[in-house]
Amino acid sequence: MHKLYLFQYQNSVTYHTEFKKKKQFSEANIQEFLHVLNQVIWQEVYVELDVNAKFNTFMDVFLHCYNNAFPIKRVHMRDTIKNKQITQGIKISSKNVRLLDNQKKTTVMKKKDLEYIDPYRKI
Question: Which of 76, 69, 77 is nearest to 26 (CA)?
């Protein structure tokens, strides 16, 4: 995985770009995989006498088709900004507020519960 880092020290913001290697499972690639599998003559698997040899031959053919249909590509991951001032506690509180808001929208809550949510949101 390749990373490009640019640091900006004044306000503790880090920008970075990542590249990862991934297989592309597009609809066209899936159709190509199915087409290639349909074209395979499996006779070499049937002629093997040993079960392990049959399995190994099958896997060799299958993986050859799989790797040709779904090649590994270098993918540019989205640039992200990481702010060092956002602590783990802030992240957890934010997650809890989202969960409480979702509960508030989907269920009928008691007045006592609603009185808890509003001050928690202000924090």
Answer: 69
Ranges of residues in the chain whose predicted pLDDT is under 50:
1-11
pTM: 0.49
What residue type is 109 in one-letter code? M
3-state percent breakdown (helix, strand, coil) of the chain, nearest 5: 55, 25, 20
Evaluate whether 93 touches 122 at the Cβ level (below 8 Å). Answer: no
Distance from C-alpha of 19 to C-alpha of 12, rounded to nearest angstrom: 23
Do the Cβ atoms of 85 and 12 come closer than 8 Å? Answer: yes
What's the CA angle centered on 19, arms 95 and 74, to 5 degrees?
Answer: 125
